[in-house]
Amino acid sequence: MANELPLHIGFIMDGNGRWATNQGLSRSEGHVAGANAFRRICEYGCDLGIKSMTFYAFSTEN
User: Fold this and answer.
1) What is the pTM of this model?
2) Set 22, 36, 47, 62: catalytic member
3) Active site residue 14
C-alpha cells in the first residue's frame, strides 16, 4: 500500500512572473517556463499512470 500512487493530483501553478523577475527575465519568459513545466508534469504524470491531474493556472490578478 505504501507504494501506491494517487489517482488524482492537483497543482496550483503560481509564481512564474515572480520567478522570472528574480532571475532577471521578463514575465513572459516566466510564463513560457511555466508552460514548459506544465508539459513536463503532464508527461511525467501520464508515465506514472496518474489518472487525473487538475491545474489552477490562471488568476485575474496577473
Assistant:
1) 0.79
2) 62
3) yes
